[in-house]
Specification:
The protein has 124 residues and is of the alpha+beta class. Helix content is 31%, strand content 38%. The strands form two sheets. Strands 2, 3, 5, 6 and 7 form a five-stranded antiparallel sheet that branches. Strands 4-1-8-9 form a four-stranded mixed sheet. A hairpin with a 3-residue loop joins strand 5 and strand 6. Helix 1 (74-93) runs antiparallel to helix 2.
């Protein structure tokens, strides 16, 4: 049996390649909307993803024969989509408003815990 991993197609982060790690060894880089299948060495493997070396997903234990979907963390996506206009408005209005906006966006990114992608098992 094989493990099938699908990266959902999304406009956000679509140009970045997601590095797929199996048992802490990089297996491949997934493009937007790409599917990859592989034969694991054992019945249970650890899978995680990384983007640009700093944004990671949680490790997930996956059984042989499973189907995994990788999707963007909605909190991270929304944070990035509002950050540029918010910081630009903050600079235009006043330094204090910019500072408060920056601190709030920084706090939100801490809440997201640096998890850029969410792995979910479609079936076991």
């Amino acid at each position: 049996m094989a493990i099938k991993i699908t990266r959902k197609k999304n406009f956000y982060g679509g140009l970045d390649h997601i590095k797929l790690y199996v048992n802490d060894q990089m297996l491949t880089k997934l493009r937007n909307g790409e599917t990859y299948e592989f034969e694991p060495d054992s019945n249970l493997v650890d899978i995680r993803t990384s983007v640009q070396g700093i944004w990671n997903s949680d490790k997930m234990k996956v059984k042989d024969g499973s189907s995994i979907t990788i999707k963007v963390n909605p909190l991270i996506k929304n944070l990035h989509l509002i950050s540029l206009p918010a910081l630009t408005c903050g600079i235009c209005i006043s330094y204090h408003f910019f500072l408060i906006t920056f601190i709030l966006l920084f706090a939100m990114s801490l809440l997201a815990d640096g998890k850029s992608h969410i792995l979910s098992v479609d079936n076991d």
